[in-house]
Design brief:
Blueprint lengths: L5 H14 L1 H6 L2 E5 L3 E6 L16 H16 L10 E11 L7 E10 L3 E11 L5 E14 L2
Antiparallel strand pairs: 1-2, 2-4, 3-6, 4-5, 5-6
């Protein structure tokens, strides 16, 4: 069993930010990571927008960020947070409004069982006037693979 230490947290964060092809390409960063929560973000980038005027972040980016945060939040509950695995069973995304700036997702573990975990995720975005508002509320169920 691997303890959830600062070294384990740093290793998971490094993998997401530097080694994971898709997440690294999106510019995902881990802002905060505790035993039951994680906060992650994706910076606004024209390549990730819809062809609206003004451009808005594609909803798939918000869903990807929420899905990733929901799964990562459950990693500390694994017997081996680094070697174990997490796979999405179901993701329910409720979009509230368009995202016009950076995206931030805060995931909280609702329950982590032996083989299934559930996380709730809130995604926010900056508005053109600089305020931060919710853009999606997400619930994810994940298969937990205990190594």
């Amino acid at each position: 069993m691997t303890e959830f230490t600062d070294d384990v947290r740093d290793l998971i964060q490094y993998h997401i930010e530097e080694e994971h092809g898709y997440l690294s390409w999106l510019g995902v960063s881990v802002e905060e990571f505790t035993r039951d929560t994680v906060t992650m973000s994706v910076p606004y980038d024209e390549k990730l927008t819809n062809t609206t005027s003004p451009p808005t972040m594609h909803g798939g980016i918000a869903a990807t960020l929420a899905d990733t945060a929901g799964g990562v939040a459950l990693r500390p509950s694994l017997s081996d947070p680094v070697g174990g695995g997490v796979a999405t069973i179901n993701l329910n995304v409720n979009y509230l409004q368009r995202a016009s700036g950076d995206l931030t997702a805060r995931a909280e573990v609702v329950r982590a069982g032996n083989s299934v975990g559930v996380s709730e995720v809130y995604v926010e975005s900056e508005t053109p006037d600089g305020a931060v508002e919710p853009v999606a509320v997400v619930t994810g169920a994940y298969r937990l693979f205990q190594d």
